[in-house]
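Hi Q.,

Before the meeting this afternoon, I wanted you to have the nicotinamide-adenine-dinucleotide prediction in hand. No need to reply - just skim if you have a minute. The sequence and ligand are here:
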Amino acid sequence: MSIPQAKMELRPLGNTGLKVSSIGFGASPLGSVFGPVAEVDAVATVREAFRQGINFFDTSPYYGGTLSEKMLGKGLKALQVPRSDYIVATKCGRYQEGFDFSAERVTKSIDESLERLQLDYVDILHCHDIEFGSLDQIVSETIPALQKLKREGKTRFIGITGLPLSIFTYVLDRVPPGSVDVILSYCHYGVNDSTLFDLLPYLKSKGVGVISASPLAMGLLTEQGPPEWHPASPELKSACKAAAGHCKSKGKKITKLALQYSLGNKEVSSVLVGMSSVSQVEENVAAVRELEGVGMDQETLSEVEAILEPVKNQTWPSGIDQN
Ligand code: NAD
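Predicted structure with the ligand bound:
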């Protein structure tokens, strides 16, 4: 049985040969990290995303203490489509109980993930939030362990993720060329923070595919606002709240504007948005199609950029001291 799929722009992901949808499905909300999500809704959300042309799904054992992987696995299985019709990324090294980037743990981790996802392989296995581990261990132990998993067919490609942009250059300058296929950056290519932009030529020169996550700045750029645990400063939170309020007063949605902004640079292969309901999928896919059709609302974008100017590129600390 096949599901009729709408057309969506596909972009090449570095040198992997993969073609990922410009908007990717972030499955962290399926782990109920932004609020409870029932299994039936999780399955329906994954189905709607696939139906709308999204072919790229991202999760981690960390999200909801393995719940996200289980929910995504159920959603993908229910599609009943060939495995090659979708691209799945999961991660290793970060767990509810803490960080462990040892070769032994990540080797065990992929088997656990595959079982929860009900898959034989993943397309991408990322080292998750490497700034919380020793970057030298990532280079000398974790990535070689992942290369072994690649040879065994458990993952097709290898990635690294984290918040500080300096982690990517640190690792990519030290590993043999081609041993890291992709990077996943988050909260650095959005209306309030676009610092990833300056790193794109370097990443391209390394032949590394770029995935950018959290265009809504993990809820900062939404009408409902961020979850309790959000690490932004009170100043950044209140500026984003003002920007969302401004859009609302004009009858516009900040989520649409924010997503369209992040999608605007084709050097970024896929923009991962966390989605937990069919209506969010519909709304976000409509934003993509509108961008392809009539383009962005430049007037509202300028107004929002002016509101966010005092906090532009403000981020928050993440990780351990590497010295
Ligand atoms: P996000 O910026 O995508 O925001 C997600 C929040 O916005 C959720 O609460 C979601 O329900 C809500 N939302 C989505 N569409 C909406 C709409 N149209 N209207 C109102 N609210 C809407 O943040 P995120 O989920 O943290 O990031 C996206 C994905 O990227 C994650 O799910 C995860 O897969 C990945 N990610 C990875 C890392 C990492 O590897 N370190 C870090 C962050 C994100």
